[in-house]
Amino acid sequence: MKLLVGLKQVPARDSLLRLDASGRWIDESDLTFEINEPDAYALEAGLQLKEKHGGELVVLTVGPARATQSIREALAKGADRAIHVEEENPGRYDTLGIAHLMAEAIESEKPDLILTGLQSDDLGNGQTGVVLAEMLGLPHETIIMQVEKLDGSIRVKRELEDGWFQHIEMPLPALVTIQSGISKLRYATLMGIKKAKSKEIRRLAAAELGAAPARSVEISRLYPPQKTKQTEMLEGSPREAAAKLVERLKFGARVL
Amino acid sequence: MSILAILEQREGGWNRMSFETLAAAQQIGRELGQSVSAAVAGASAKALAEEAAGYKLENVYAVEHALLAKYTPDAYTAALEQLIRLLKPDLVLFPHTYRVRDFAPKLSARFGRCLVSDAIGHKVEDGHAVMVRQLFQGKLNTDVRFLLEAPNFASIQAGAYRADTLEAGAAEVETFAPELDAGMIRTRPDEPFRESQQAVDLSAASIIVSVGRGIKEKDNIPIVQKLAQALGGELAASRPICDNGWLPMERQVGSSGQTVAPKLYVAVGISGAIQHLVGMKGSKTIVAINKDADAPIFEVADYGIVGDLFEVVPALVEEVRKARA
């Protein structure tokens, strides 16, 4: 089974975010980056399928040079090779543009199954996988918890709202977007890290991948959310803060 | 100039978020001076369309075809694409449901457009709608501008608009029969199912203490459980805790778990990702305890304590016991 996993590198979850001078993006200078968490689960799902059914797993990323670190991590965990579409400023593309770059970059790959995370922790559009499937003419399913390989098709378990699920069968080739937290993520072994150094990373320049579709949306401004609720912050030592809270719950909110 | 709201039904029943989207459409329509229509798709959608026609709308379209009985992204995309090509709306709005997340990006891509997903509001700038959405899991907001001509597409977050602001009226109901054939549907869905009978009905609890990633490991859960006991409330959790198996799924609050609105909701070590917030922001009094002062959970909290939960929670247990003694 030939598998392809789309990975995005995003600022680490606990990052303290500051706006940059343009006011349209964050200042990335002091940040650390990591593999987008849902994508890490997509990689894990792909690695498990490869272990079970054999074949090859290729990772694909669109991003600046720093994303190499995340690619190496994926290779160390067991991916066979990587394709890196280098673009120092991915923000100049919208989802259609990014999906276009991905589609062009894997044109000759013809994977049986493409896996991506269901959304990114930074932009959170939750669309790249679905749009990529549309561009490649593939069937897709989103928010997938399990993938079971059948003969020429897969059976997936999709999460619905309010604790409901659904099984769906679909032909290969196909694309699925994977839900976060569906399994335990593996760590790279020392041997894996060593092997990763000799694995192939094919680098492509975004500019060489043909004209992207016209940009349809853009971020015009970025700003901290305005509070809709008056929040009383309770200061002091843990004991003092706890005492203040209990007093307010008892006499203010009257819930004690 | 018009706005089209795509409503959602399953087995003849509404997804309630449809009405919030309808409210968003009416509000944007009023501000831009545009007419608003709605559509609902299914094997038979006439009865629901007639119900929706009780609101102030131009038309309500019942998009009907036997192949729309079970949701599939291929059939829904094809049917709505045909409707949109016919009606040529300026703006198409959807409720940001799991189903919409599945087909709306594909539908928008057919028109060379990106869906502006999970919008929490809008602004009007130079006579055009600008959508507001959240980035970095709620830490920052952004204004998103549409750059191309009609049609444009956006989905609306649960709770962002209020269904009780809907204006009543009398709309014309029209049936639209899309051209679909079974060969275009590539996926075969089974019937939806639930994994377990939900033994814990969190929606009935008047006090809920909820725990998130900040608890670090399973062995620490009793620290928060003690607080739930002291307050006489139920213990609940955010998604990662249930994914890890530290608490059963039936105690999960959020879009994939239960929606609750107790008198008191205490969020311990929960950053407040939107998927969690939509499940609890209707609570009467919300307390947040978190080490990160910028955590989005403080946006919805009445009372906040920035600090180490491993120090704050035991102190709180002691104070609650004193107050109750």
Would you mind describing this structure in some detail?
The complex is a heterodimer of chains A (256) and B (325). Chain A has 256 residues and is of the alpha/beta class. Chain A folds into 2 domains: 207 residues, Rossmann fold (3-Layer(aba) Sandwich); 32 residues, no CATH class. Chain A has 6 helices and 13 strands. In chain A, a hairpin with a 3-residue loop joins strand 7 and strand 8. Chain B is an alpha/beta fold and 325 residues long. Chain B has 2 domains: 183 residues, Rossmann fold; 123 residues, 3-Layer(aba) Sandwich (Rossmann fold), CATH 3.40.50.1220. Chain B is 28% helix and 28% strand. In chain B, a hairpin with a 2-residue loop joins strand 2 and strand 3. The radius of gyration of chain B is 22 Å and the shape is elongated. Chain B starts with a strand and ends with a helix. The model of chain B has no long low-confidence stretch (mean pLDDT 94). At the A-B interface, helix 3, helix 4, strand 7, strand 9 and strand 12 of A face helix 4, strand 7, strand 9, strand 10 and strand 13 of B. Strand 9 of chain A pairs antiparallel with strand 13 of chain B.
